[in-house]
């Protein structure tokens, strides 16, 4: 039996003792550091490449880490054609950076959180053969659920309310609605005033993120062809909608592993000490297997043909 084709839970959070890299290289729209197999990091809505700084510092000791700003976040402006924006526009943005920063023959390990998770999932589907492993923390792949799923009712309500609040000149109210849904009632109010202003600056991209995430995938069949090793991470205190999405992915992805941490939907930001070791261990495991396979192929290509029998 191929054990990659059955669900496996990693036995507790793995411990990694990798040294922290001394410095990270910041470029407009991305953070690039280290050498080795490339690892692409995609952040959540209202986040930026900075979300992954701690993880990037650890991975950069043995990988080429590429943390990207998605459209409308960090150093990036809003999409040039917001009215027609789709998830594939986001994926083309990611692919352009990967093509520029990664040799064409190199396979990449992709990590995504929330909206960045559904982007990572779509990237893996479109760039078949380019992705070595996929790590997803609660990807908001709403399309995996039936349209009448009760957990989607509140998601659609928020998706419709946020642009109305923005148009009414109430971006901070829109941000509070969004943050409190994902992190619990009162979460926005507990942020410092400077943090509230910072996240509210990017709220205009969120309606586009919702539209993109609600439009793809169209059912489980859309992701069954993603046959790369995938680690599905979730938090014990996360909203039910993301828990249901992770369960759907558990049944749909052919090579899936799972882990749970004592955190909420924003675990990669609020509890990186719990989430990051899972990501590191998973990427290490598949990078080692990839390297061993490449070494075997190289040795086979150099081996002499056996002598012909007399």
Write a structural description.
Strands 1-9-8-7-6-4-5-3-2 form a 9-stranded mixed β-sheet, sandwiched between helices. It has 10 helices and 9 strands. Helix 2 packs across helix 3, helix 4 packs antiparallel against helix 5 (171-183) and helix 5 (171-183) packs across helix 6. It has one domain (3-147, 217-296): Rossmann fold. Mean pLDDT is 90; it is low at 1-9 and 11-22. The chain is globular. 42% of the residues lie in helices and 14% in strands. The relative contact order is 0.15. With 310 residues, the protein is an alpha/beta fold.
Question: Over the alpha carbons, how many angstroms does the gyration radius reach?
Answer: 20 Å
**Named CATH topology:** Rossmann fold
- Helices and strands: which structural class? alpha/beta
Flag low-confidence runs: 1-9, 11-22
CATH class: Alpha Beta
Number of strands: 9
Shape: globular
Query: Strand count, sense and closure of the main sheet?
Result: 9 strands, mixed
Query: Roughly what fraction of the amino acids lie in strands?
Result: 5-15%
- CATH architecture, by name, is 3-Layer(aba) Sandwich
Distance between the termini: 41 Å
Q: Count the helices. How many? A: 10
Strand order of the largest sheet: 1-9-8-7-6-4-5-3-2
CATH homologous superfamily assignment: Alpha/Beta hydrolase fold, catalytic domain
* Count of separate structural domains: 1
Q: Helical percent range? A: 40-55%
Task: Write the H/E string, N to C.
Answer: EEEEHEHEHEHHHHEHEHH
What is the averaged pLDDT score? 90
